[in-house]
Amino acid sequence: MPRPATATPRGETFLKTAAVLQTLALLFQASTAGLLLTSSRAYALHDYGSKVMYGAAMLYVLATILAWRPGGGSPRPVLYSTGFLLLASAQVALGIAHMASLHVPLGVLMFGFSTLALVRALSPRSPLRPATGS
To answer: Environment class of residue 38 by beta-carbon count within 10 Å: exposed (0-12), middle (13-18) or buried (19+)?
Structure first.
């Protein structure tokens, strides 16, 4: 018997949760980056947040793999999340090297990508419509 249309598979719920966590971690990083301009204590928050953000990126890769494998869908989200993890690795390296001129724009780009992934994960899947000939 097929599942009802309202049931959400466990992999999709995990994917949504991972996307939310990743985006919130990046928002926290942006907030603490702004605090770095006014507070000397913000460095510790930004440092701890970077570890959480990197862990969230790894969790998102795992979530995309678990959402992809059982259904046999497109591996494209796995490739996107792996690319995001590579960007996160570059971001951490640039932060350690204190290269703010590259670290800050990459952070903005990553927040945009993560927000896009979040919107995609939370949006309902619309069925494909056949092309109409005109």
So the answer is: exposed
